[in-house]
Write a structure and sequence with these properties.
This protein is of the alpha+beta class. It has a domain at 1-72. Helices cover 36% and strands 18% of the residues. It contains six helices and three strands, in the order H-E-H-E-E-H-H-H-H. A three-stranded mixed sheet has the order 1-2-3, covered by helices on one side. The model has no long low-confidence stretch (mean pLDDT 86).
């Protein structure tokens, strides 16, 4: 959540932060510590299970005024699946277990770089291009051979 705070503009009266989750989290306690909740719209979609099987869900607004019709977590669940596919450390039972937290964090940082700078979306632009951080889709070669200017 601290990385989220570093990555986004501070929410304001004119630009709210919108957060959706599945309810299996502590966001309602953490978000107020990091952001002014007057400018945060947070809702969760909580699954109802019977005998371990998904049967229904309910929507719950925690704070703010999120667009209740848009409260979905499909993107979150899809991205979690992509992470598990691409970062072997996140698979529950695997030979590729992260023995040190540092290695897991570095692996996730590499994946995050790739996803934001080198993986084009449907419109052939990366998230970094959409945010106007770069005007090109990066490659691993460009990344690894990039010369950093030291002043």
């Amino acid at each position: 959540m601290i990385q989220l705070k570093r990555s986004v503009r501070a929410p304001s009266e004119f630009e709210h932060l919108t957060v959706y989750s599945d309810g299996n989290d502590d966001y309602e306690f953490v978000l107020p510590k990091l952001f002014d909740v007057r400018f945060v719209d947070y809702a969760r979609r909580v699954k109802i299970r019977k005998n371990g099987k998904y049967v229904d869900y309910f929507l719950e607004v925690v704070f703010g005024e999120p667009f209740i019709r848009r409260v979905h977590i499909n993107n979150n669940e899809n991205f979690n699946g992509i992470l598990r596919e691409r970062v072997g450390f996140l698979v529950r039972r695997t030979k590729c277990i992260a023995k040190k937290r540092f290695r897991l964090e570095r692996k996730l940082e590499l994946f995050r770089w790739f996803w934001n700078w080198a993986k084009p979306l449907k419109g052939r632009q990366t998230p970094a291009m959409l945010e106007k951080l770069t005007d090109v889709c990066w490659t691993w070669s460009r990344f690894l051979h990039y010369k950093v200017k030291v002043s």
